[in-house]
Amino acid sequence: MKKLICILILVFILGFVLNGVGYSQELKRAEFSGSWYPAHPDKLKSMLDTLLRNAAPDLEKEKILGIIVPHAGYIYSASVAAQGFKILENKQVRHVILLGASHKYYFEGVSIYPQGSFETPLGNLTVDSKLASQFRDLSFVQFEPKYFMREHSLEVELPFIKKIIPAAQIVPILFGKVTHDQMQQLAQKLLEIASGTDILIVVSSDLSHFHPYYKAGKIDQDTIQLIETCNTRRLWETREYEGGRACGICPIVTFLEYSKKRSAKIKILKYANSGDTAGGRGRVVGYVSAVAYLEPTHYKSNKVHSKEEKMQEYTLSEEEKLTLLQIARKILEAHLKGEKLPQFKIDSSNLSQKRGAFVTLKKKGQLRGCIGRIVADTPLYDVISNVAIDSAVHDPRFPPVRYEELKDIEIEISVLTPFTEVKNIEEIEVGTHGLMIRKGFHSGLLLPQVPTEYGWDRQTFLQHTCLKAGLPPSAYSDKGATLYRFSAIVFGESDSNENSE
């Protein structure tokens, strides 16, 4: 009897240890197979084949940045999810970042599964630990595997990923309680990573929960319109509307902020709720499938211009400069007062050209915010409208600008020429050229006026560009580092005031 008790204790301890190993890092077991989706590989494969065969999205040549898909049991939501995953067929994707909300655990910030693999009936998916580590510099990120236990939101997406992209590596990210500023920082980090690695983002979220069929449809259609128009401000401010727009509202907002930074378009692929699929209509859950993509002409130009491209001649009249400054000022006033943003009718062909640009805010001569867009895929006047707001409220180096501060803030605009690769640093003219460096996951940019303001020579300018990218000062000479130069038309409100006197 004693021998039997000892054996049982040993088995219990061994099971606890083995479970702890799987729990901590090595293999995250599939916990919802056999309930939320088939556990048998053949049955699961057959179901996915049928679902994908019946899905027919019409994007083929576009560059896919990511998808939003639901995460309920397959009999309820898989037909909607299949529309999103179908669009990934035959796409060359190796790195998938999953964004989902925690349903079981409460914690601050976001948690990333650090390493190991996730089990599916179709085979395991490996966690890209190197890619995951790129998020370590965000103060609100933690790496806690336990938050992924008994969490269905990411697990139900994995069989689709394994089926469509069998060789993909994943980075699973769960959202706890986060602020809007933290979502902005995470979106910026995704943008930085995407500059060096081809990533695909899968956002896992259902829409409204447990309303009657017709009420749910009304709430969900309002949410879908906000997603389609990338209206993240209203999505966030009304997130508790009618009991909650979506359980994954934070992953959705983060993804849409990232999509805006990439100048992506959003397409709604399919909507349904559980009353349309396999449930009653008294209390339903809403599901949507959506995709963020770049049109072929856009993503080709999304790369930095090659050495063959020449710096293009481009000028702006004083009247056109004044118009852009007025747009930036009026947009900021309306946004910071919480008013409806004004619409502008622009007749100038110069202001309608697609150009990259930065908006710099200075308060009593000190930098108060600076954000821009280097990809020339949006009309200039529209770029200024967008980045003026970003500079005021989304520059992570500063707290958001308050309306009361505007009277003390000067707006400066830098309209960029295309980028040219630097082969010899002697090509760089301080006071004429801005610089951007890229190396691996790192990139940094300084505008042409920066070295003049600080009195830097060429060497110091190069070193500070490296530091801006988070690289050692001498990294510009490293193998694998690429330098680009560009020019800019720089003008500010002080220039306009001088001309008007």
Give a quick rundown of the structure.
By secondary structure, this protein is α+β, with helices and mostly antiparallel strands. The chain has helices at 2-24, 41-53, 74-86, 129-132, 152-155, 158-164, 180-194, 213-228, 232-237, 249-261, 274-277, 296-301, 318-337, 349-352, 380-393, 449-454, 458-468, 493-500, and strands spanning 27-28, 63-69, 95-101, 110-112, 117-118, 125-126, 141-142, 169-175, 199-204, 209-211, 265-273, 284-294, 357-363, 366-373, 409-416, 420-421, 434-439, 442-446, 482-486, 488-492.
Radius of gyration: 25 Å
Global shape = globular
CATH architecture of the largest domain: 3-Layer(aba) Sandwich
Describe the main β-sheet briefly. Answer: 9 strands, mixed
Per DSSP, what share of the residues sits in E-state strands of 2 or more residues? 15-25%
How many H/I helical runs? Answer: 18
Percent helix, as a range, is 25-40%
- How many beta-strand runs? 20
What does this structure look like?
The protein has 501 residues and is of the alpha+beta class. It has 2 domains: 28-299, Protocatechuate 4,5-dioxygenase, Chain B; 305-500, 2-Layer Sandwich (Glycoprotein, Type 4 Pilin). Helices cover 37% and strands 21% of the residues. The protein has helices at residues 2-24, 41-53, 74-86, 129-132, 152-155, 158-164, 180-194, 213-228, 232-237, 249-261, 274-277, 296-301, 318-337, 349-352, 380-393, 449-454, 458-468, 493-500, and strands at 27-28, 63-69, 95-101, 110-112, 117-118, 125-126, 141-142, 169-175, 199-204, 209-211, 265-273, 284-294, 357-363, 366-373, 409-416, 420-421, 434-439, 442-446, 482-486, 488-492. The strands form 4 sheets. Strands 2, 3, 4, 7, 8, 9, 10, 11 and 12 form a 9-stranded mixed sheet that branches. Strands 14-13-15-20 form a 4-stranded antiparallel sheet. Strand 5 (117-118) and strand 6 form a beta hairpin. Helix 13 packs across helix 15. The longest helix is centred in the N-terminal third of the chain and has 23 residues, at 2-24. It is globular, with a radius of gyration of 25 Å. Mean pLDDT is 87; it is low at 11-24, 300-312 and 497-501.
